[in-house]
Design goal:
By secondary structure, this protein is mainly α. About 75% of the residues lie in helices and about 0% in strands.
Amino acid sequence: MLPELNRQALQNACTREDLIRKTAAQIIKDFAEFGLEITFSGNVQNFYEELFNQMKPRIEEVLGEHYTMFLNFLYRIDVTEKQVHHYQKEMGGASYEDALTEVIIHREMKKVMIREYFKAQSKAEESESDMLTE
């Protein structure tokens, strides 16, 4: 069974250092593909604020000046307008840019969590297979 990936589960996952570091790396990688630089100090206690505060101005820049690139960016990260509007409502009418930035952070974390889940499943299957062949 896949791990739970709702907003609350993602916020809880933000306490795991390994997921935080992998999520930061995924964000840095995806933004870099569009020439947008994001850095991470490695301070896991403030990772959300650190990344959010870097990501939001870059998102605003792309949204305002390079709309086609913005659409490609959303496609690459796998974020939909519907998700952003849903987050806006959940966040009490937050700005589009704030909601989008949070959606991206959560989407990137979902990618990491799903990857971890399937790695663990693969290891469990290998272990089970090894036990059967011994």
